[in-house]
């Protein structure tokens, strides 16, 4: 889920004044598709999941600029920009200016995140961040975020909304990265919906109390065992659980998102062996094992990054 940006055209002069939080006390304004969201609260949902809530004029502008169809999807996402804290850059970032004044390694980096909740009436939203100490860029920022901190977000994308047909069976599959989208989809299902949702996480401590219809079975899988020191490779338990399911005998709505290698295996099973129509299938990779997001996004244009055959 990244986009390219236009070549630099603005002189580097005054770049520090334009980007430093200390340079101006004026409210952050949208810059292109960027909106500066203000952190209002932080909540630790599990050992490796932090929920940040955002509000303010930036969120109101973000909602107003959004395509209602994308904003209403249960997999609504945004591209977030993170800058090195020691540079004291304040969102929204003038990337054209920064390219003129900073080395490549100091430019803000993009990361793609699902929006867990949006409330247009109160101009608030929530984003869940998977965190592993000081690993990565977004996680450490989320761990240290305080009310009043700003985060740059693009206008949202999104494509999946559960069918309103209660008779259509559901199969939702994902790992930690897909929890926000699956949780939102489960909440949006008809009360009499039926099906199965299987979510893979590190351990039992990462399970969340997700609301879901009584007719939808929620199954949690763990990569780490309480009795065995071995930890399964990300995606392996999810693929094994899916392969253990009986093949559907009719149409089924499928939402499957997570690690790239696992999603390729699930595509072979669900679309290939089971023959589920692609019109009923939302399946893509949110990340790839051993790849930073920049490399993962670049590989989407190469054979290694393709989930479906051409």
Rg on CA atoms, Å: 20 Å
Q: Determine the N-to-C terminus distance.
A: 19 Å
The tally of strands reads: 11
Name the CATH architecture of the largest domain. Answer: 3-Layer(aba) Sandwich
Molecular structure report:
With 310 residues, this protein is α/β, with parallel strands linked by helices. It has two domains: 34-157, Translation factors (Elongation Factor Tu (Ef-tu), domain 3); 170-300, Nucleotide-binding domain of ferredoxin-NADP reductase (FNR) module (Rossmann fold, 3-Layer(aba) Sandwich), CATH 3.40.50.80. The chain is built from nine helices and eleven strands. It is globular.
Summarize the structure.
This protein has 310 residues and is an alpha/beta fold.
List the helices and strands and how they pair.
Layout: H1 15-19, E1 34-46, E2 49-55, H2 57-65, H3 68-71, E3 77-82, H4 95-101, E4 109-119, E5 124-130, H5 138-144, E6 150-154, E7 170-175, H6 179-188, E8 195-201, E9 216-222, H7 236-243, E10 253-259, H8 260-273, E11 281-287, H9 293-299
Parallel strand pairs: 7-8, 7-10, 8-9, 10-11
Antiparallel strand pairs: 1-2, 1-6, 2-5, 3-4, 3-6, 4-5
Helix pairs in contact: 7-8
């Amino acid at each position: 889920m990244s986009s390219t940006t236009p070549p630099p055209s603005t002189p580097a002069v005054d770049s520090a004044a334009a980007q430093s939080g200390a340079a101006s006390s004026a409210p952050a304004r949208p810059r292109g598709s960027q909106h500066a969201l203000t952190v209002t609260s932080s909540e630790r949902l599990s050992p490796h999941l932090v929920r940040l809530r955002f509000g303010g004029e930036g969120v109101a502008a973000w909602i107003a600029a959004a395509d209602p169809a994308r904003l209403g999807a249960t997999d609504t996402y945004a591209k977030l920009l993170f800058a090195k804290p020691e540079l004291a850059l304040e969102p929204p970032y003038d990337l054209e200016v920064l390219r003129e004044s900073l080395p490549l390694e100091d430019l803000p980096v993009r990361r793609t995140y699902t929006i867990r909740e949006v409330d247009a009436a109160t101009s608030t939203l929530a984003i869940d961040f998977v965190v592993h100490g000081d690993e990565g860029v977004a996680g450490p920022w989320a761990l240290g975020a305080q009310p009043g901190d700003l985060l740059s977000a693009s206008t949202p994308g999104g494509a999946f909304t559960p069918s309103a047909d209660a008779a259509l069976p559901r199969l939702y599959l994902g790992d930690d990265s897909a929890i926000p989208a699956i949780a939102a989809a489960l909440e949006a299902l008809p009360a009499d919906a039926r099906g199965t949702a299987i979510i893979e996480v590190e351990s039992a401590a990462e399970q969340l109390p997700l609301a879901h219809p009584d007719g939808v079975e929620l199954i949690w899988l763990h990569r780490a065992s309480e009795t065995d020191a071995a930890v399964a490779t990300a995606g392996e338990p999810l693929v094994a659980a899916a392969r253990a399911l009986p093949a559907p005998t009719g149409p089924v709505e499928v939402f499957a998102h997570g690690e790239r290698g696992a999603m390729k295996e699930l595509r072979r099973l669900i679309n290939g062996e089971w023959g589920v129509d692609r019109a009923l299938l939302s399946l893509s990779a949110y990340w790839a094992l051993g790849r930073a997001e920049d490399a993962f996004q670049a590989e989407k244009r190469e054979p290694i990054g393709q989930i479906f055959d051409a």
